[in-house]
TrEMBL record:
One of its GO terms (molecular function) is dipeptide transmembrane transporter activity. Residues 85-286 form the ABC transmembrane type-1 domain. One of its GO terms (cellular component) is plasma membrane. This is ABC transporter permease. The keyword Transmembrane applies. Keywords: Cell membrane, Membrane, Transmembrane, Transmembrane helix, Transport. The chain crosses the membrane at residues 87-109, 121-151, 163-183, 222-247, 267-286. It is a multi-pass membrane protein. It is found in: Cell membrane. InterPro entries: BPD_transp_1_N, MetI-like, MetI-like_sf. Belongs to the binding-protein-dependent transport system permease family.
């Protein structure tokens, strides 16, 4: 993880300098400036230093918890992240809860019941997978917020309950695509487990069908489902940028969009590196949990090592 983060930090830092324009042009806002004024800006933000020198200076500050000072907001990037990160994490947590509950439930029902129920679930999940998050955000906002007036159209409100109320529609819009994906993965994994010999043996021994499904089918499918967890969380982190913009939520997603537009290098670099770190942490947790959910993974590793 340390080596990957180091490589990611180099890519994140260098990518902004490949884009056209510069922080100095934004700070000047199109106004002409004397060479002395332009030089003062370059000296303040070390824009004239060699690329490697700027990168090593930035990396040393990041390791100390200092992400620099925002060019747009004229404040520390760490302060901006601390103010906006709670809203984004709450939105992602709400969406993840909806994805896990509905995705697993629909996949379970479709695999177990089959027939018309399974067909209906397949059609609905296909529609969900084919609906991008920003399209779902516009449709939900137009119907339930503007049309019916059941939910707020934008913002995060005041207080925890008001925050949850404001984030309900964004969470659903963010989760819709992933609900369909997780449901289809769960259904396929359970159907494959249903054909296993251990299921036939359990049924021949008179084990109740509910126990067969819970202990021998669903539990054996969790390994495949858990592997999808990293992809789900990474998709949530990326798509929250679009959803936050649609609902005007003051989170890091909207901050990233605004900072990219204004060439706010320190803010974009900090948010990008934070997203990479969160993604890597989630994948690490998934890798650590996988052997606990499916002991065959650990046994296979030991045998290959032996």
């Amino acid at each position: 993880m340390a080596a990957t983060l180091l490589g990611a930090s180099f890519v994140v830092f260098g990518a902004m300098y490949l884009a056209p324009g510069s922080p100095a042009s934004f700070l000047l806002s199109g106004r002409s400036a004397s060479p002395a004024a332009l030089q003062a800006i370059n000296d303040q933000y070390h824009l004239d230093d060699p690329f490697l020198v700027r990168y090593l200076r930035w990396l040393g500050q990041v390791l100390q918890g200092d992400f620099g000072r925002s060019i747009t907001y004229r404040t520390d990037v760490s302060t901006l992240l601390a103010d906006r990160l709670p809203a984004t994490l709450t939105l992602v947590a709400m969406a993840l809860l909806v994805v896990v509950v509905l995705g697993l439930a629909l996949g379970w029902i479709g695999a177990v019941r089959g027939g018309a129920t399974d067909t209906a679930i397949l059609l609905s999940t296909t529609l969900a997978v084919g609906t991008p998050s920003f399209v779902a955000a516009v449709l939900l906002q137009g119907l339930f917020a503007v049309g019916l007036g059941w939910f707020p159209t934008s913002g995060t409100g005041d207080g925890l309950l008001d925050l949850l109320w404001h984030l309900t529609l964004p969470a659903i819009a963010l989760a819709l695509y992933l609900i369909g994906m997780l449901a289809r993965v769960t259904r396929s994994a359970m159907l494959e487990a249903l054909d296993g010999e251990h299921v036939a043996v359990a049924r021949s021994r008179g084990v109740p069908e509910r126990e067969v499904i819970r202990r021998h089918v669903f539990r054996n499918s969790l390994g495949t489902v858990l592997t999808t967890g990293g992809l789900i969380v990474s998709t949530l982190l990326v798509c929250t940028i679009l959803v936050e913009s649609a609902f005007s939520i003051g989170g890091i997603g909207q901050l990233l969009e605004l900072s990219t537009t204004t060439k706010d290098f320190p803010t974009v670099q900090a948010i990008s590196l934070l997203i990479v770190a969160l993604f890597m942490t989630v994948n690490l947790v998934v890798d650590l949990l996988h052997p606990l959910v499916d002991p065959r993974v650990a046994l296979g590793t030991r045998r290959s090592g032996a």
